[in-house]
Amino acid sequence: MLNLKDPSLFRQQAFVAGQWCDADDKTTFPVTNPATGETIGNVPHMGAAETRRAIAAANEAWRGWRAKTAKERSAILRKWNDLMLANADDLALIMTVEQGKPLAESKGEIGYAASFIEWFAEEGKRVAGDTLPSPWADRRIVVTKEPIGVCAAITPWNFPAAMITRKVGPALAAGCPMVVKPAEGTPFSALAMAVLAERAGVPAGVFSVVTGDARAIGGEMTSNPTVRKLSFTGSTEVGRLLMQQSAATVKKLSLELGGNAPFIVFDDADLDAAVEGAMASKYRNAGQTCVCANRIYVQDGVYDAFADKLVAAVRKLKVGNGLEPGVTQGPLIDEDAVKKVELHVADATEKGGRVLTGGKRHALGHTFFEPTVIAGVTSDMRVAKEETFGPLAPLFRFKTDEEAIALANDTEFGLASYFYSRDIGRIWRVAEGLESGMVGINTGLISNEVAPFGGVKQSGLGREGSKYGMDDYLVIKYLCMGGI
Ligand code: ADP
């Protein structure tokens, strides 16, 4: 059914301890294409026992993997990066079929995903220790950095490849093995990457992919004392639960949780640039990214002009099956996702919001939704507080800079924020006033492997990508050298 150049990349088994295997009880679950509702294939429905084995195998493999030099690990990772790029067409096809995003976006994600492997392959060679001036004449202080140990990762469906490599890249480069549980909706991208990891020479047990029951697998990952660190990307609700579950074994945590990104357009903004940024930030991946603009605040004087320009741009989006040429917005991931957007539209319109374009399910059926813009949105509406995770741009009106900053910060989240202005003083004041881990200034696209991705408040803990991303997989050891 899938027309792959290399059909062996499509695996319907999990990858545990270097073996392709089924669930112990042979049960499977189907994975569907959100654009057509068709079943693409089935993957093993594994639970705690299989996860325990993957963790034990990772622990076995740890000694050999950490004993390699950083350069040796780097060479293997480099090969994995090269294989991902060489197979980008197939990986993108698998992604579009299971996730729904347009093929061009999938290809973009494969490049982005591989960039984390490449970056950390290089960065791993630069993990250096320290010597500190000692307060004692007869002793010296040396600081070394060591791999934390067996890591586990739970990843979401919105970026089926990149959310995995952003975790596996630094873990493996640092000398840690990792067991990954991909989202139920998008396991095939993860399994295809495992095929390539094996081909690149990643030793058995160093990288395992366990598919199946999220609660059972997550329960084992969080309670098993062998796991020293858990990295999770997903909802704040599940993040809180995993944090609680990890408390008993005091695991180190990286959490990339929900966002509720404000996107502020000041009256001195380049409006065309602001519209372009809003389109990229809001409608990419059909609005299903944690850094998507969720609340668009527009200053009074430019509100109507911005709304007109945005609506014109939104009407040019082409909704359809991501495999079709020219499509710029695919389906949403599932029925629940559509219901949430419908709920936000209904709530906003009941409370006085006006639909400028879109506003309902798309005529294509399934989980397609019309790209939507709503004007006259206010703080008492659901869209102000909750992440929509869909193609809905709500336009709020504000008057002063202080008001904009206060509104932007009025949320429990603090992942990304964006604003458009050309005044240097305002740019500094607003950038410093926003409570978020990342700020896009005159741009709607901020993610890359070189920059630290992560949030403040209830958007999470830790940073991924960049030179800082390695720290989450390392522990510091202090050697006090006496007798000198
Ligand atoms: P989303 O709303 O993006 O689906 P989730 O937080 O529900 O976000 O899912 C992100 C990842 O967390 C997925 O891999 C999912 O299977 C997993 N997950 C969901 N619930 C649990 C749980 N109770 N324990 C462990 N993992 C979970």
Automatic annotation (TrEMBL):
Gene3D superfamilies, per the entry: Aldehyde Dehydrogenase, Chain A, domain 1, Aldehyde Dehydrogenase, Chain A, domain 2
- What's the superkingdom here? Bacteria
- Keywords tagged on the record: Oxidoreductase
GO term, biological process aspect, one: gamma-aminobutyric acid catabolic process
Q: Sorted alphabetically, which Pfam families does this protein's record hold?
A: Aldedh (PF00171)
Q: Signal peptide position in this chain?
A: none
SUPFAM superfamilies according to UniProt: ALDH-like
| GO MF entry, a single one | succinate-semialdehyde dehydrogenase (NAD+) activity
Gene Ontology cellular component terms for the protein in this record = cytosol
> Where do the Aldehyde dehydrogenase domain residues begin and end?
20-478
- Active site annotated at which positions? E256
Family membership noted in the UniProt record: Belongs to the aldehyde dehydrogenase family.
Tell me what this protein is called: NAD-dependent succinate-semialdehyde dehydrogenase
Organism for this UniProt entry:
Noviherbaspirillum denitrificans
The organism's lineage?
Bacteria, Pseudomonadati, Pseudomonadota, Betaproteobacteria, Burkholderiales
